[in-house]
Amino acid sequence: MYSLEQLKIFVIASEKGSLAETARALGRAQSGVSQAMANLEVDLNQTLFIRSKSGLTLTSAGKSLLPLARQLLRQADFFDQQLLALQRNEEAEISLAIDESLWSEGLLQAFTPLQQQFRQTRFHLITASTFDIEQMVAEGKVQLGVIYQDFDMAKFVEFDFHFLGNYRFITVASPQHPLAQLAEVSPQDLMNYVHLTHRSLNGQELWFAGSDSEHCWYANDRLTIYQWALQGIGWADLPEQMVQADLTNGRLIRLPLAVEPEGNQVGVVCLRSRSHSHGAVSEWLLAMFKQFFAQIKG
């Protein structure tokens, strides 16, 4: 019966075209490599190479079997890597949901080492709103959720809670909006214009985001609200990190509020489902999130 070691020699010999070069590549004696190849041909009952002074040339049988040998070696390598991952307590699959307005280029870059370190883990990312993610974690549909802090989270008991940092929400509008022309904006002024309001799919809002205005447009993602604000449709409460570039280039302005002029500090938290076991990948993600959001000044 042929061995993986014999198949490895077969593949390398096909690439090198010489048993001497194959032996050097493997750090083995040429006689041992030559004997291993001869034994493989006996085990397979096939001649794999035509041997000549100029080197090795694959036979038709060798050409036919070479791709399969490479595939078997890849599968064996995958098996070894998967076994090592299990020994290191690395999850085979992990699902993560992040509030869509927390996603950024910087956070994307922070994920890069994940693939390099945990090659055997399948990764599934979902972007949604905070309240919808809470429900996903509570029901065990995802293992981790990164969201804004909801002070009514006591209604869910099926997750662990980890504080990550703060995001500042500020009130913004287009420079062409009537509110942008005021030296100071009162609550009554705000109520006279369309409030671009974020709501989850089941109609929930963060503690500061509700509105007494009769003029509201609702969306379940902040990117839509952000685009509406750029178009001058109304005013909105948005994460400062999300709109910073547009504040700098003048596409949006921060409204001078008479009440809460500094905006609202909103906690960012990571929820971990208790219906899943958590291993090395989950721990890596939690540590990465803590480091990333701690660097952001709310």
UniProtKB/TrEMBL annotation:
Keyword Nucleus found: no
Query: Which CDD domains does the protein's record reference?
Result: PBP2_LTTR_substrate
Under Gene Ontology molecular function, one entry of this record is: DNA-binding transcription factor activity
Family matches, as InterPro entries: LysR_HTH_N, LysR_subst-bd, WH-like_DNA-bd_sf, WH_DNA-bd_sf
Q: Which UniProt keywords apply?
A: DNA-binding, Transcription, Transcription regulation
Q: Does the keyword Magnesium apply?
A: no
Q: Which residues form the HTH lysR-type domain?
A: 1-59
Note the Pfam families from the entry. Answer: HTH_1 (PF00126), LysR_substrate (PF03466)
Q: Which family does it belong to?
A: Belongs to the LysR transcriptional regulatory family.
Name recorded for this polypeptide: HTH lysR-type domain-containing protein
Q: Please name the source species.
A: Volucribacter amazonae
